[in-house]
Amino acid sequence: MVENEASIAIHSAFGFRTADTRERIGCLHGRCHDAVLVKLATMSPTSNHPPARGKRLVVSAKVFVSVFTVLLAISLHVRIGGLPKRFRTLTEDVSMAVPKRMRFGVFMAPFHRVGENPTLALERDLELLQWLDTLGFDEAYIGEHHSAGWETIASPELFMATAAERTRHIRLGTGVTSLPYHHPFMVANRMVQLDHLTRGRVILGCGPGALASDALMLGIKPERQRAMMEESLDAIMRLMSNTEPYSVKTDWFEMNEAVLQLRPYQDPIVPVAVASVESPAGVTLAGKHGASVLSLSVPRDTIRKTSLAELWSIAEETAAEHGKKMRREDWGVVMGMHLADTKEQAYKDIREGSARVVTEYFGRTLGNPVPDVPREQIVDYMVDHNQWIVGTPDDCIAGIERLQELTGGFGKFMMRVEDWAPRD
Fold this sequence. Notes:
Blueprint: H1 5-13, E1 16-28, E2 31-40, E3 59-60, H2 71-74, H3 85-92, E4 103-108, H4 118-134, E5 139-142, H5 156-166, E6 171-174, E7 177-178, H6 184-197, E8 202-207, H7 212-217, H8 225-241, E9 246-249, E10 254-258, E11 272-276, H9 281-289, E12 292-296, H10 308-321, E13 332-339, H11 343-365, H12 378-384, E14 388-391, H13 393-407, E15 412-416
Helix pairs in contact: 3-13, 5-6, 6-8, 8-9, 9-10
């Protein structure tokens, strides 16, 4: 019996056909599941793109009961006219600055509970990117963190280089590079090299650094991080956009007649995205350089006090002051999501796992406020306060439309990768 019939139906609607079935291929705790191999009916054998090392593309009906059920289909490169009516509402019924085709991706911190095997967790993250690439997702942003034990990728560039060898199409971004932790010349050099190695599939996502414990270990005063980020990005943009030697001296880095020996593969430069949470610092800096914005819809204290629409207005005003222009189609909104065949099943899937992340990591480990509700009601609280989308594909569509209304229009929806539910 196929457990996730909705996912199979969605794939069929978009031209996928069942190529093979493997019985009892995935077993855990004595419970086994069948797996279904699906492929595009129009895909020739030579164009099929399996995961690395010759692994066959096997779509487990149980694995994808999570966040990917509907967005796998929506994110395929299909024009709106070819979409079923239920999906067209994303672009036809929202009277705002919504692009004809939204882009979809993930924001991978990642969040792995302390005590898990870190080697296997990293391999699982890489396998996820392979699936996303095969299924037509547009972008994936990889985080940088150095403490607290949960977000275990220290170098997004190394992770991206590995992922680039296992994927073909998905764009890979740093999500984000903590600019105060690095000399800006080295950041620019590494990203330009990756730009060539991936044939132009990289994005430089940047931020000041999320964890105070990271900054303290490096001897950086947290109150200086935003100013350091601006100084660094100013230098990086100058290096990537100009071939003239560049000299600059600040209280934390210096460059003398600096020139990048490689020019970016992408024209004119490696695309840049600036992370924004609640402070206007991120959108102000994005506006200064005409960079895109990555808005984390859930701040680390889980309670938003500023409006996404207000922050975007600040970005546009700043861009105008500097002769730049912001593009809503490049604005990415990051949010947690989990989907299932029914709303009741979706809530049941993650009720304990999502509460664990909020209470154990954001609350106990980072010391941030958590919702003042019983543990088993945290998922209800987050959904009711428009912080997460949990439910069915229809709830997903409604949630994205609601975000479009709240923001005035954005072009990219980025799901925050979470270990809320078991992989079986």
